[in-house]
Amino acid sequence: MKSIIKILSIACLGAMVSCEDIYDDLNLNEANNQVIYTSEMDFGNRIQVNGTITFGDVSSGVQSRQWSFPEGAVDIIGSDNDTSSTENTVKTVFTSPGEHKVRLQQTYNGNAYVGTDQRGSDLDTTLTITVLDSVALQVQAYLLNPDGSLGEELTLSDNAENEVMAGSFVRYIVSPTGEPSDYVWNTDGGDPGTSEEFVNEFDVRYKKLGTFGFGLYASRERPAGESLVEVENFLKIIPSTEPVILEGAFDANGKISLNFSREMNANTLNPADFIVSIAHDGTDIPATVAAATVDPEEANLVILSLENELIYNDDQVLISYQQGEMATTDGMPADSFSDLPVVFIGTNILENTAFDYSFENSTVDNWPYQWWGAPWDKYQLAISNHQAFDGNNSAAITLEPHGGMIISNADSDNNLITFPAEAGKTYEMGVWVYVEDLGNTPEGAVPPDLRFYWSPNTNWGVGANPAFDAAFPVGEWVYSSVLVEFPASGDYSLNIRGANENNTAPLSIFMDNISLSEARLRP
Q1: What is the Cβ-side half-sphere exposure of residue 108, based on CA atoms within 13 angstroms?
Q2: Could you tell me the CATH superfamily of domain 349-518?
Q3: DSSP string, 282-340
Q4: What is the per-residue pLDDT for 221?
Q5: What per-residue confidence (pLDDT) applies to 317?
Q6: pTM of the model
Q7: Nearest of 520, 523, 466 to residue 251 by alpha carbon
Q8: Is the CATH number of domain 136-238 2.60.40.10?
Q9: Given this model, what pLDDT does residue 301 score?
Q10: Spatial CB neighbours of 251, under 8 Å, sequence gap ≥ 6
Q11: 454, 419 in Cβ contact below 8 A?
Q12: Any idea what DSSP says for residue 31?
């Protein structure tokens, strides 16, 4: 019995040896696949000058490789040869800004795959590396002439104390390098006093007397970079001999705020010099100005408080002033004005969305025609810096005779940009418009207008915003608004329709600062 077991064991051992011998001459071919990478491939291969970037070749089946780098622009770390390498991993420093080409030549054991495509055995690949300069700023400052043209250049240095009359505009012009993506402006003493607007021309109106500095911080997220310009005692705002300008009347949490072009003297204010009228749903509401004060933080604002009354978004409010003693801090009296509409401007919901409400960050391609057919395709649209209520740009629109327009704001992939709205709330939808030419609408015909239609759940009965009748002001910025409600909470897009069907001539307008804010309604 024992001998039988030994024989079986030997047989099994022989079988095992025979099985192993089967694979001795088997040829396992390595796959030929191209896989190359850079340490910045997920960020567009963008680096800052003197920044590092690593190149890697982890392809399989490679017989030989050679990296080629631009001469005089690269330092290959750990190598005396800065123009080529045969290593599979190469760490480099780019010392010159600009676009640079890096070439990789590979020879494989056979035809190689690039993704799912099979190519030849010799592959030649070029990578583009964008090397940004360090972030830096060159800033110039100019006094603006009354017509908006550039005037005297100001000395932008510490303790220059350029003398500028109160109420004047200063334009800052920035020449950046290194492609910064964000700005923070510090224009102490000006209007605005701070801003994060990313523009290279920035206008500031100085309304306060005193000496002020200037600051601009620029940054770039990746590759990280920053630069700061800070100037002390740059401007000295002095009394003006020019008339003081009333820039508008606005709601201030139920009170009325008068925005003047420079600081006002609180000791010259008399509530009895002001007359306010309020109408609500066609009914007049008696109102008396009980107090007139200067805003403690912005002395160019005169705040009017009413006797036991507040104003609301669904009111029509007019304010008048019969010239009395009201004057600026430099002694210039304010002129009389009559029946100035009070504008309600709340927190603009569109500011926290990608919707380009102020036309500062979009091109015409981002405002595509919405294919309603004739006559809604008879218009011209441009993003223009010729007129702007705020910032540098506005939408310049010409509606052709008997024509119209239908546009919407879209991203670079032509997806309509949306904003959030809630059911059960009332919103004020507003826009600033500047009419250059009303055209020629026959008397008695329906005048041209703008209307803002949202989608989904469109309310086709929304009112004109505004209607351009014969009495509409020409050559000045005018605010228009309507109250709207959304039937369901969610995200909405906005179609802007311009109608000019009865006009025998073109209608030419500028449009700026579209807004959507929650409304306060009269109880």
Answers
A1: 25
A2: Galactose-binding domain-like (2.60.120.260)
A3: TEEE---EEEEEE-SS-TTEEEEEETTB---TTSEEEEEE--SS-BBTTSPBPPPEEEE
A4: 93
A5: 98
A6: 0.73
A7: 520
A8: yes
A9: 97
A10: 257, 311, 313, 317, 342, 343, 344, 345
A11: no
A12: P
Query: Backbone phi, then psi, for 455, in 5-degree steps?
Result: -145, 140
Are 179 and 136 in contact by the 8 Å Cβ rule? The answer is: no
CATH value of 246-343 in 2.60.40.1220, 2.60.40.2550, 2.170.190.11, 3.40.1280.10: 2.60.40.1220
Describe the strand order of the beta sheet including 136-144 as a list of residue ranges: 150-154, 136-144, 168-177, 201-206, 190-191
Note the pLDDT of residue 148: 85
Q: Point out the residues of the chain with pLDDT beneath 70.
A: 1-30
Chain region(s) in the chain for CATH 2.60.40.10:
36-132, 136-238
Torsions phi, psi for 34 (to 5 deg): -85, 125
pLDDT digits (tens, 9 = 90+) for 173-205: 999 999 999 999 999 999 999 999 999 999 999
Q: Any residues with CB less than 8 A from the CB of 373 and at least 6 apart, and which?
A: none
- pLDDT at position 30 is 66
DSSP 401: T
CA–centroid distance for 141 within its chain: 23
Determine the CATH number of domain 36-132.
2.60.40.10
| Separation of alpha carbons 180 and 173, rounded Å | 15
What is the C-alpha to C-alpha distance for residues 315 and 277, in angstroms, rounded to an integer? 10
**How far apart, in whole angstroms, are the C-alpha atoms of residue 347 and residue 52?**
44
Radius of gyration of the chain from its Cα atoms, rounded to whole angstroms: 34
Torsion of CA 201, 207, 212, 217, to 10 degrees: -30
User: Residues 56, 60, 65, 70: what is their CA dihedral angle, to the nearest 10 degrees?
Assistant: -30
The per-residue pLDDT for 147 is 86
254 CB neighbour count, 10 Å cutoff? 12
Query: Which tokens hold the place of 410?
Result: 């879209």
Cis ω before 368 (30° cut-off from 0): no
Cβ(452)–Cβ(494) below 8 Å:
yes
